[in-house]
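Lecture 7, part 2: worked example. A protein chain together with zinc ion.
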Amino acid sequence: MARKPLIIEARINEYTSRSENGHIPFTPEEIGDAAARACEAGASIVHFHARHANGEPDHRAETYAAAIRAIRSRCDVLVYPTLGQITAGGSDVDRIAHIEALAADSATRPDIAPIDTGSTNLDRWRDGTFGSGDNTYVNHTSTLRYFAERLRALGVKPQFVSWAVPFTRMFEALRNLGLVDAPAWLCFELTDSGILGGHPGTIAGLDAHLRFLPDGPLEWSVSNKVGNLTSQAALSIERGGHVSPGLGDYGWPELGSPDNGAVVAHIAALSRAMGREVATVRQARDLLGL
Ligand code: ZN
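Predicted complex, written out as C-alpha cells:
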C-alpha cells in the first residue's frame, strides 16, 4: 500500500528578524513571492504573519487581506494566517477580529487558523539570564472555546497547536465537548535555543508528544521554534505525521541560510528518500477534510 503523502506546511516568517535570515518576507508582495516558492518546492499550506515593511507586526485586516490576495494570485496553496496572540492586546474578540473580517469575503477567507491549546512562558533563556521576564503566552479555557466556536462558524479549519502534553490533553477535552470537527489538524510545536515553553527540539522531544498522541481521526505535524527540524521531521515522516518547516522558526545556517523554498525542498527530499511522496494541495485538502 502506498504511504500517506506528506503535507508540508511552510511557516514562512512569524515575527522573526532578518538578522536570522535575510530571506524572511515582510510585506504582502514578499509573502506572496515566498509562498509561491514554497508551494513550487512542495508546500501545500503556507502559514504567515502580516508585518510592516520594517518587520514590525501589522495586525490590520487589510494587510492580511493583501497578503492572502498576493498568495492566491500566485498559487493555489492553503492559506493559514496567524491569530493576534500578543500584538492584538489580548481580548478574545480582538485576537480573532481580522479572521472574522477576512472570512466575510471568499477571496480572502483563510483555509486554516491556529488555536494554541494552553499557556506557556516564552522568555528566552540565554547566556545565563532570561529575556523580559513577562513574555507569557496566555490562552484561557474560555478563549479556546470561543475560538473553536467562532472558527467553526466562519468555515475556517483550526490547527490545534500543542506545545507540551498538557496542551494535547486540553485538545482532547475540547474534542470531548464537541468543539472539534474530524479530521482534526494538530501541530506539535517543539522549542529550542533557550525557549523553554515547549518540548525540546529533538527526537526525544517529539517522541514524548507521540506517547500521548490522541486517537484519530486526526492528522498531525511537527515544527521547531528556533531549531533545526531535520531529525524530528524524519521521525514524523516515519510515524505517519507531517512537517511544518520555515524561516519563521529557524534561519537554517546549516543549509547556507537559504530561502523558504529551499527549506521546503530539503524536507521534501528527506521525505522522498524515506519513501513518502509529498502531498499536492488537492491531497492535503483531502487529508484535512477541506
Ligand atoms: Zn505563526
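The domain at 9-288 is CATH 3.20.20.70 (TIM Barrel). The chain has a mean pLDDT of 96. Keep this in mind for problem set question 3.
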